[in-house]
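Retro notes, structure queue

What went well: the backlog is down to a handful. What didn't: a couple of records were mislabeled last round, so from now on we paste the full input next to the output in the thread. Example, using ATP/GTP-binding protein from Streptomyces doudnae:
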Amino acid sequence: MIFGRSERGKPPVEPVTLKILVAGGFGVGKTTLVGAVSEIRPLRTEELLTEAGRPVDDTSGVEGKHTTTVAMDFGRITLREDLVLYLFGTPGQQRFWFMWDELSEGALGAIVLADTRRLEDCFAAIDYFERRSIPFLVGVNCFDGGARYPEDEVRRALDLDEDVPIVLCDARDRASVKEILVGVVQHAMSHAASRRNPVTT
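Corresponding output:
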């Protein structure tokens, strides 16, 4: 790059930046997902779990978890030269939900991470995005030792509309996370197109 222009004489591409939220229950893997794919060192706001928080932080099924996000996680990934995603991981506990409105401002779409061991923990996130008409997909984080269920069973259990994508993923794996990010961008774009051109009968 020379004086703001490429060596071939073409002006640099000004990328489109899109905001994606990563939501879900406590301990479902949101921080891990952002860290697995971010091309910058992710911003994390994790604190150690304390005895004072034990009555409100349900660690059933995630007994090995010792920290929790108290504000947000932030990461960035360039999908193409002209497309950059900013990732915002939301805090999972109910006492931090007041931050969701600010984090969701201007979001293109969202990923709701689900753990089949604690599937009910993602109901609040699903309800939040449905009420605000923010397009989302459900990423079933395949934990080691966790039960695997067919997509239709997960859809019924979460009472999801047919147009909401469900994707099996591994929040630790960069390739798996990139696949889910591409999926949420495609879903959000088709959702926006359908709202611009509603089908009339």
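Agreed that this is the format going forward. Reviewer comment attached to the example: Residues 174-196 form the longest helix (23 residues).
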